[in-house]
Amino acid sequence: MSKLILIDGNSIANRAFYALPLLTNSSGLHTNAVYGFTTMLLKLIEEQQPTHFMVAFDAGKVTFRHKDYKEYKGGRAKTPPELSEQFPLLKELLQAFGITQFELEGYEADDIIGTLTRQADEQGINVLVVTGDKDMLQLASPQVTIALTRKGISEVELYDPAAIEEKYGLKPLQIIDLKGLMGDSSDNIPGIPGVGEKTALKLLHQYGSVEEVLAHADELKGKMQEKVKTHAEDARMSKELATIFREVPMELTLDEMAYSGSEGQALASMFQKLEFKSLLDKMDFTAEEAGEEPAEELECQWVDTSAAAAFADKLKTVSAIYVEVIGDNPHYAEVVGISFYDGETAYYAPLDVILSEEGAPIRAWLSDPSKKVASYDVHRADVALSWQGIELRGCSFDVQLAGYLLDPTEASHTLAAIASKFSVGGLKEDEAVYGKGAKFKLPDSETLNNHLGRKAEVIARVTPVLEKALEDSEMAKLFHELELPLSAVLAGMEKQGILVHSEELRTLGVELNERIQDLMKTIYDLAGGEFNINSPKQLGEVLFDKLQLPVIKKTKTGYSTDAEVLEKLASRHEIVQHLLNYRQLAKLQSTYIEGLLKEVNEQTGKIHTYYKQTIAATGRLSSQYPNLQNIPIRLEEGRKIRKVFVPSEPGWSILAADYSQIELRVLAHISQDEKLMEAFHHNMDIHTKTAMDVFGVAEEDVDSNMRRSAKAVNFGIVYGISDYGLSQNLDITRAEAARFIEQYFSVFQGVRRYMEEIVMKARKDGFVTTLLQRRRYLPEINASNYNLRSFAERTAMNTPIQGTAADIIKLAMVQIADRLKREKLASRMLLQVHDELVFEVPDNELETMKQLVPEMMEKAINLDVPLRADVSCGRNWYEAK
DNA sequence: ACCGTCACG
DNA sequence: ACGTACGTGACGGTT
To answer: Does the global pTM surpass 0.70?
Structure first.
């Protein structure tokens, strides 16, 4: 039984384009419409099992319809370039799929499909027409079903004549009459003004066709009669325009549309070009098809206790290892085992074997810093193994870290994804082997052995490729001398942890709880009833429906109730101030009291955070489980939380040192702005200095308001300024904000030049870099969409600044860690908070450290302006301010 | 899994 | 006319 699928190519491409966010591959090619189209094709092939397949496209700007009505499709917005550039890709993709495509000058896809369905009707072939265009329903017949895309792209709704009858009460051909009466604004087909779908259906149910409606116009009432009579000609013409032409002079035989499956290789290479990673995984292409260096058979040996001694002899030739760690938080994760690759054979030793007596030589080897092996996510392995009493040393390459540096914005840096991106195949994604979420399960030992063995082998194969790529992009030094050493420093800090006074934290929680209870009671009283204050939905109803407060701002899902909105409502109702207080305290309670208590390690009494080194697009670190980079400080109430972070040895102190204005100093250096450099050379208060220059007043005439504005401008400059953003921040008009910015740039001309040049550089190269050559790609820098482009421009301005500051503190960390070790100081580095480092220090080292730390931070790198770091210490983190 | 909110630099 | 300041993570609620 033949089954023919006919796709309205333009319609589906359009739907996909507007339904999906703009995706780009790394070369800046837009791919969202092609992606949507692809998922639809895959779904159709799987579900419909077509024997024949064809995609029709519109061809030529002028069709025969324009002869009768030259405004046809007039007023329609021009196809955006982000979509038009995808049509060649789409056609290439269809070829890879092995799907016939057809177009004919002067005809639209509808007409081609209309003609083919007529022929199919005659020959009794089953047809499925896929389109987003309701007009096509006119083609439905016992043989022909129409699949209309619903919201989005992946869902379709099937219409056969019965379904059309049920939905509209019309025969398929009457769809033409429907459109004749109601018109179609998107095609600029007029219809009868004022007649929408409802009226049109009513008329058709009564009279059956446009012609009959016109013939019985006299029977219609008042206004309607008048409209129908005046626009009778429009209705006739509209019907004609809406009629799909089913006699296109074309010869396309069924044989030519035969579909016999897709060719894996062509499809895989197309998916690779488009960077459809999820599809590449899902399709399970063989390595050959995927164009990857074909993975050869790999012998994977299982190392048990009886084989451990023999295996130990092979260790000296091992070039890559992989430590399988299951669980998000490496401090509490399960180490499953370690796999090894010696250039020939893979070996896998489960953790219990490594921990056994027989595993001693393996443990010794793992701890040997003089060996050189490649691995993946050494940082994580280091932390997880340390909890097993195993030291991991001597990893001289990290695939994850390299993959991150080569493109920090990549969504995931899994080993399989990085390998595949660099044309090394043979490894399945963990998800495909282990399952995910609730379905996660370690497989049988043979599968596990092979999977983990393969990981070690893939690390060995991809390492030289990544080394080369790092060289080519001038990041080899950044990798080997900064990021890789840093990963060991981080692991050390995390293992060390920071002691938390849990009892004190609990006490704070009890006090807080009483105040929260009181606030809740007051709020319920004022609201006239109980509700869940934590639910923005319920709170919105109370404020804006029940209490009738004015709506200031809306979110996607309803009323906004954020602090900014509440501040504006504070004067209008007593409840609002209580809500603000409640929010503040509830945040402290849930995130910083209960949240932190949950993360205190039972054995150590400490909090061991985990720094992610491969997440932030700018090169910053981020902190998890818990996040110790966002402990409150701005409000005294929350700042008290810092009192519970204490030294882990009696009599020691907490020492904190932070860079002063590091981002603006970095800006001064990279922009070489004379005024800004001068300000820092004189170690001036930068916001006051900015106020003096921008407002043209003497230092003593800078009032607090002027300084506040100048500070906001400085922040804005670092973020990639826009008048809108500044106006929001300072609560002034856009015009005023624009004047501030102009004033700023007229003083700091070097900064203006930098901002212009960095955006131009981003356009030219497609990426921006930090001082240490860290890179960030900005594919949207040339987008025609204003928002996307502006975002990329601001990112181009901000990333070199934020990223260079991140480079610098990372340098300081590596150098300081080195120094502490070399000089055998007992002091320990515990935390990093972007521009701040926190240590615990014994008394006898306090003076040394108070000098050493800021000095090393200031000298971490030599810029054309001085760097400054302030230091302070106390019995806890709160006091070190 | 996603959203709104809010903590930090 | 558009609508956003840059970079993160965690929580509770909702879907």
So the answer is: yes
